[in-house]
Amino acid sequence: MITRCFLGILTLTLTSGAALADGFGFMTPSGNIYCNGYVSGGGAIGCTIVSRSGEFALPKPASCAGVWGHEFTLEGSGPACMTCGEAPKGVDYSDIADYGASADFGDITCTSERTGLTCRNKTGRGFFLSRRKQEIW
User: Fold this and answer.
1) pLDDT tier, 90 (very low <50, low <70, confident <90, very high otherwise)
2) CA–CA gap between residue 31 and residue 104 (Å, rounded)
3) What is the DSSP letter of 9?
4) 17 vs 11: CA distance, rounded Å
5) What is the H or E stretch that residue 113 is in?
6) According to the UniProt entry, where is the signal peptide (predicted)?
């Protein structure tokens, strides 16, 4: 599972050519959650929650020497996953996903609400992120 997640992050960060034209980045109004991805080929999204609390959505794997519980990825089909990464930093994106807004990114739909951010793919898999709770299904 971890290997798949790392491949997803490499895809998100190393995408070139036509997929770059389909790239996007946004943050929630609180600035605590931000996402990047692309829409071509079914899409992929990676979201980071800067400040979090509560239980981890998944247990921290022994192979993770970095920070756990802040980075979530999802492709157009298949399971959502968490990745081991660096300490999250805030961003200042001009694209804000206002509360109540939903958008489709390829085969992924994300909805921003006061209670948190939900992203779900065409197979019904996804994640929910809020300061108090993070979930993967």
Assistant:
1) confident
2) 20
3) H
4) 12
5) strand 108-113
6) 1-21
Parent domain of 78: 2-136
Q: How far apart are CA 69 and CA 45, in angstroms?
A: 16
Angle at 75 between CA 105 and CA 134, to 5 degrees: 95
10 Å CB burial of residue 55 (0-12, 13-18, 19+) is exposed
Q: Once rounded to an integer, what is the mean pLDDT over residues 71-93? A: 94
Q: What gap in Å lies between CA 31 and CA 47, rounded to an integer? A: 12
User: 10 pLDDT exceeds 70?
Assistant: no
Query: How many Å separate Cα 26 from the centre of its chain?
Result: 11
Distance CA 98, CA 40 (A): 24
* pLDDT tens, residue by residue, 14-65: 333 444 457 899 999 999 999 999 999 999 999 999 999 999 999 999 999 9
Residue 34 near residue 27 (C-beta atoms within 8 A): yes
Tell me which residue has tokens 């692309």.
Answer: 38
Q: Which amino acid is at 117?
A: L
Provide the domain count of the chain.
Answer: 1
Euclidean distance between CA atoms 52 and 40, whole angstroms = 30
